[in-house]
């Protein structure tokens, strides 16, 4: 069985196609294709409340390309999810409707809670009975989820993201509200561990030179990587550190969001599992289709 997930974010748009098989009573997910295209819809929306005509045309071309790949791989089922940029855009629904009419590709514009729920599906292997704060930083929003005894006890989406912060479109009131939400909902009697998801924390993890089989960062190490990155200009991050241009400018603003959440929770450690929205979508699609024969 082949499944496809498209994540339409504020900073980039991703497609993943996965082959799911059964072997010796085990389910295996094998990535067949992964494409990340740096179309920054958030820059339009956070400044002008709408997606520009230029980016609308680029977006439709990209959806055509993704639809061709989905068809060529003969995908059995797919899900296309759009997050903060399209849900805040005054013409986001119209563009989604245009894509559906012209390409037959259905785009689901999801709210922050749905976005968090999809990501959470992919996190269960990392959550036990201890308290956890999950921090997912995107280009336009940050989703927070607090767990205790493997149950989600609080969840909220905030309009703080790497692109929004880069362009100074973030509000001090929202930062304060995010920290207050964390402090009001965690159990201060127990040390809480954070779980970080999103492309920026994955890159920070990579830059930290982690030990083999280690999937966590101490807060001191995150601050070290942050200071290291701030020591380079944007051009140097692209040319000396070999960061993608659309990563080089947002990674530092994103690091401040992760650190702010950790400090509000008085947490010193962040697990970085390298999963995201697309992984949760794959799990949802598999559960929906697992009754079908898998070859």
UniProtKB/TrEMBL annotation:
Protein name from the UniProt record: Phosphatase
Segments crossing the lipid bilayer: none
Lineage, opening ranks: Bacteria, Pseudomonadati, Bacteroidota, Cytophagia, Cytophagales
Span of domain Ppx/GppA phosphatase N-terminal: 29-282
């Amino acid at each position: 069985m082949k499944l496809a997930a498209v994540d339409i974010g504020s900073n980039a748009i991703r497609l993943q196609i996965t082959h799911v098989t059964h072997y010796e009573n085990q389910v295996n997910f094998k990535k067949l294709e992964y494409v990340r295209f740096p179309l920054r819809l958030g820059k339009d929306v956070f400044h002008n409340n709408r997606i520009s005509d230029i980016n609308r045309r680029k977006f439709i071309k990209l959806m055509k390309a993704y639809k061709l790949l989905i068809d060529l791989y003969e995908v059995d089922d797919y899900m296309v999810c759009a997050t903060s940029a399209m849900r805040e855009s005054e013409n986001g629904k119209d563009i989604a409707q245009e894509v559906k009419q012209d390409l037959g590709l259905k785009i689901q514009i999801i709210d922050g809670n749905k976005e968090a729920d999809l990501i959470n599906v992919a996190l269960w292997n990392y959550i036990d009975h201890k308290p956890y704060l999950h921090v997912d930083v995107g280009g336009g929003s940050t989703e927070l989820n607090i767990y205790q005894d493997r149950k989600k006890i609080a969840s909220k989406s905030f309009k703080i993201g790497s692109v929004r912060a880069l362009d100074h479109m973030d509000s001090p009131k929202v930062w304060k509200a995010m920290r207050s939400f964390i402090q009001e909902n965690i159990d201060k009697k127990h040390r809480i561990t954070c779980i970080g998801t999103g492309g920026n924390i994955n890159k920070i993890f990579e830059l930290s030179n982690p030990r083999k089989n280690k999937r966590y960062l101490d807060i001191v190490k995150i601050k070290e990587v942050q200071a290291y990155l701030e020591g380079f200009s944007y051009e140097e991050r692209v040319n000396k550190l070999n960061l993608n241009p659309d990563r080089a400018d947002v990674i530092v603003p994103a690091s401040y969001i992760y650190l702010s959440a950790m400090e509000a929770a008085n947490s010193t450690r962040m697990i970085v599992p390298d999963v995201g929205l697309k992984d949760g979508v794959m799990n949802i699609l598999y559960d929906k289709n697992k009754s079908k024969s898998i070859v």
